[in-house]
Amino acid sequence: MTDSNCIFCKIVRGEIPAYKVYEDDDFLAFLDINPRSPGHTQVIPRKHFRWVWDIPAAAEAKAGEPNIGELFEVVKKVALAQQKAFNTDFILSKIIGDEVEHAHIWVFPDPKISGNPKDFADNAEKIRKFI
Question: Which residue positions are annotated as catalytic (predicted)?
Answer without folding.
Answer: 104
